[in-house]
Amino acid sequence: MRAQSGGAPGDIQILFPGQRELSLAHGTFAKVYHARHADDTGETIAIKVLDKEKALRNGLVLHIKREIAILRRMRRPNIVRLFEVMATRSKIYFAMEFVRSGELFACVAKGRLKEDTARRYFQ
């Protein structure tokens, strides 16, 4: 599956046809939305939206570029896949694989993982 390309980044709204945007997670610099692919497949993806101004103000440009470069190269079962990166004057959009179980940090933050559970993530 590939995220929509060819359209302007402003076309991201068509990923949420007739429904409210569903925020999956948010942090200081980004929000992650659950989205449906705009093509005929209707596949589910995640859209990470970063605020460019906040990133610039906090010196995160190099960090973001590094994140993009690493995610583009990675093809591992426990690392989320990056399909496309789009940008407008004020936002950066990452079209990513949707992972139902959420992020690993949230699991670890709840407490220790049992050895069997940890093994699935860290093999």
TrEMBL record:
UniProt entry keywords in alphabetical sequence: ATP-binding, Kinase, Nucleotide-binding, Serine/threonine-protein kinase, Transferase
Gene Ontology molecular functions: ATP binding; protein serine/threonine kinase activity
Gene3D superfamilies noted in UniProt: Transferase(Phosphotransferase) domain 1
Protein kinase domain segment(s): 18-123
Presence of the UniProt keyword Transcription regulation in the record: no
Protein name (Swiss-Prot/TrEMBL): Protein kinase domain-containing protein
